[in-house]
Design brief:
With 405 residues, the protein is α/β, with parallel strands linked by helices. 36% of the residues lie in helices and 17% in strands. It contains twelve helices and 16 strands. Helix 2 runs parallel beside helix 8. It binds pyridoxal-5'-phosphate. Pyridoxal-5'-phosphate (PLP) binds next to helix 3.
Amino acid sequence: MLTNIQLTFVKGNVILQKSDNLMTEIIYLDYAATTPLDKDVYKEIKPFLTDHYGNSASLHSLGNYAKERVEDARENIKKKLNANNYKLIFTSGGTESNNLALKGIANSYKEKGKHIIVSKIEHDCILNTAKFLEKEGFEVTYLDVNKEGFIDLETLKKKIRKDTILVSIIHANNEIGTVQNIKEIGRICKEKETLFHTDACQSFTKIPIDLEEDNISLITINAHKIYGPKGVGALLVKNGIKITPLLHGGGHEYNLRSGTLNVSGIVGFSKATEVITKEDVIRMTELRDYLISKVLKKIPSAKLNGPKENRLCNNINFRFNYIEGESILLHLDLLGIKVSTGSACSSNTLQTNHVIKAIDVKPEETNGVIRISLGKETTKKEIEKVIEVLPIIIEKLTKMSPFSK
Ligand SMILES: Cc1ncc(COP(=O)(O)O)c(C=O)c1O
């Protein structure tokens, strides 16, 4: 893709020029917000938008064909997670799956207890659901995280009570890339006989997950972070766990999520689980570490948000003193480089991001945050471009800042 805006650098001063004849390549580095649709996924989806348009609930052959393909997709996705002993419920995405997990468990287990534990760095769709449940009479414990974004496992153990019905901890954080030790969290929850849900929208297909081995009771995944279509996701629930549906209707999806199935989306979701390879993960990790080390070297004021170890392979998040993340984003955007500040996938507010607040960043640094997230097609050349222009942009903005000396 091309854009027609040029940024010219004159000895540290940046001049923005809009040029009608000069085209700049787009460097997309916002894969944590969403990914492009993979070409093979698109090929798989297309016939279901045109020829195979049957409703998977219809009894005739067009319906049967759609149903068979939905069931193939269900089995294929379950296999990736070792989920033989789980129900996979297709939903409209991560937000719906997380709502279904929290509200569905809260409603089904409210006689047993009304206490839920989440971390302070969950995605907004968990945190706002937790706040909703507090208004409905549930008690929520919001676990602190350390400076790198990890929860403390001993604290978790202590906070689980007899009336705790659910622990929900995000697997890989969408802002700062912290990958929690879900195996250990699962073990603790099993020992304490409480259910464990994890939001794995960012980690699915990048980090191997074994639901049985990791003692995960429920897991949220979606398609648009893994080169699949937008508007489709799933919640997997271990057999035997009761869950109250959010949507009532014709009884689709084991009576847990009514509504005509998004057959093309589901078929595409299944295909998308095969897009990211082990080699892609290794390559993204190398590019991530290269960019981090170069930027930290070239920009003395830059600090890395999130951990060095146990970090999502495609996540980079920096903070800079006394400048606005939005200004950095806009300068990069004019050069064709697409990044995000805070959580582009959940909001466009200018408030300090709750994840950055939770990792105890100094007030003067909380607004100068940018997230750079890599994809399987990200090249070294694109990374070099960021390494070339970011120091110039930061220098200019720092000079302009009324707070910096
Ligand atoms: C960790 C995480 N959970 C949930 C969501 C919401 O998913 P969706 O956009 O499919 O509703 C996102 C992304 O937006 C995410 O990154």
